[in-house]
Each structure stands twice: as structure tokens, then as C-alpha cells.
Protein: DUF4913 domain-containing protein
Organism: Streptomyces haneummycinicus
Amino acid sequence: MQGPAYVQTLRRLTLWTHHVLLPVFGREVTSSAPWCSRWWEHPEAVAQLHGLWLAWGHMTGPGSEVTGPAGWMRDYLDPVMNSLRSPTGPFAGCKPGGHRPKVPPKVDVVDPFMPSGPRPA
């Protein structure tokens, strides 16, 4: 997803995160459970929250089973929030009011299985 579709989806995810997820399920920020106030600048967090949001819609929306919300909390909310808020998770190093961008691991060769020949610049 990219362009206007990505922007619109990210906006809807942001509204859900700021008006549903964090007010209800956001716990206090500590050094052992960090959160970044600029979470959208962490690609891993965006990917995990997007999956959490999609599961929320599926398990709590019209036609879902009455146990859907409980299943969502058990199967999706707790694992995602534990991963995001882990001291070694995507927000490690971020502090309240202090975003720290992450540097992805170095990769020596982008496509090591590309046939021999000229490589794109």
C-alpha cells in the first residue's frame, strides 16, 4: 500500500489508536514498558498495530461472535502490546517526549540470489 491509500489507512489507524486503543488499553509508560509518542515513525509498530486494528474490526464488528472481544484481547492485544512495549521492542530507547529512530540491521547484499551480471545501482 502506498500513496493516498496508505495515508488514509494510516489516518484511520491513528484515530483508532488514539481514541480506542490507548485510552482503554494503554498502560503507564515505564522503562520496562516503553511507548513512543511518535509511534507512527516506527515501521514495526505501524505493522503490528495495523494487524491489531484489522483483527479488532474482524472480531468485534457486526456479525462477530459474543466472545470475539475476549478472544481479541487474549490472542491479539496482549501479544502485540507485550511485543511493542518490551524493553527490547521497537520503542526501546524512546522516552516520554523523546523519540529515538531505530537503525535497521545492515545487509551486505540486497539480493544475494540475483544471477551474475550487472547489479542495479
